[in-house]
Amino acid sequence: MSKEWLWWLGEFGLVAVVAVVAGFVTRDVPISILYGLFVGTVFFVLREHRRVVAQQERQVYMMEDKALNLPITLSHLENVDPYLKHVIESERNEFLRLAREVIDGEITIKTRTTGQLIIDYWKLSRPGDKIIATNSGAGWGTPAWEMYRQLNFEMAERGADFTRIFVEPTMATPEDKKHLKQEMDRQKEHLKVRFIKEAKLPPRAMLNSVLIGDRYYGYIIVSKPVGSGLRQVPDEFKVFTRRDEVEKAQELMETLIKLSEEYK
After folding, report:
1. What ranges do the domains of the chain cover?
2. How far is 135 from 133, CA to CA, in rounded Å?
3. Three-state SS at 209
4. Is 181 exposed, middle or buried (0-12, 13-18, 19+ CB in 10 A)?
5. Helices 114-122 and 82-102: crossing angle, nearest 10°?
6. What angle do the packed helices 29-67 and 3-26 form, to 10 degrees?
7. pLDDT single digits (tens) 186-213
8. Around 146, how many Cα atoms within 13 Å sit in the side-chain half-sphere?
């Protein structure tokens, strides 16, 4: 049965229910039928209005996407992961806003930091998720890192099975190692904390990465490192949702758990 037929059956069912209730209350069959038809008509008009508006918005999106010469219209991305689709649509809408403003000879640039993207990514977790993260100091000492840490603690309190593997970089200074130990001490009361040196990492392992359940895998890239110590500020964040990539990440993270040491 098509969706359209199901929709009409729903409308008929609504009218019938209203008519029966009205008949029971008024004990007047003609009035109950008229009341049911009236209520059904009102709901029909409201639903039809929403359907037409949604269809028009979809058509506008398609025309805008074609005007931008996009390889595929965003309105056809039904099978794309909701998180990725949200990111794409946000960037697209921001571009359209700038394009409209530039006609007047001025634009307002609204920057969205990598830290904000990572916080949104953390929020994809659900109670019961198995989360494995590696960290070598990216973002330490920044306001964003304080938010990451607190959010991670809250995720664990809500039921996430959260393990963080701290990585000591090969170029770590004595001061870096001190900060690393302080951070592990701070987090071990809330999360499962493990430790490994960069030299022992297997191939493809990233210094700063996050696996959320069996759905998402992401890692941070510091393309412009400042000095050789910890507390580097991330400037790129890559996310995978493809099943094959996530499965490879799961195997990699499980290997890291075996190679690392529990920190007590």
Report:
1. 3-72, 77-110, 121-262
2. 7
3. strand
4. middle
5. 150
6. 150
7. 999 999 999 999 999 998 899 899 999 9
8. 3
Report DSSP state, residue 191.
S
3: phi then psi, degrees, rounded to nearest 5: -65, -35
Among left, alpha and beta (phi > 0; psi -120 to 50; other), residue 123 is alpha
Q: How far is CA 193 from CA 198, 204, 206, in A?
A: 16, 21, 17
The pair of three-digit structure tokens given for residue 131, joined into one six-digit string: 């989360």
Does this model's pTM top 0.70? My answer is no
Q: Tens digit of pLDDT for each residue in 72-124? A: 555 555 566 777 777 777 777 777 777 777 777 777 777 667 777 788 888 88
Helices (DSSP H) in 123-260: which residue ranges?
143-157, 174-187, 243-259
Joined together, the tokens standing for residue 42 give 């009102």
Choose the most confident range, by mean pLDDT, from 31-35, 163-167, 260-264. 163-167
CA 96 to chain centre: 22
CATH code, residues 121-262 = 3.30.870.10
pLDDT tens, residue by residue, 23-72: 556 666 566 666 666 666 666 666 666 766 666 666 555 555 555 555 55
Backbone region of residue 213 per phi and psi (left: phi > 0; alpha: psi in -120 to 50; beta: other values)? left
Q: How far apart are the first and last CA of the chain?
A: 60
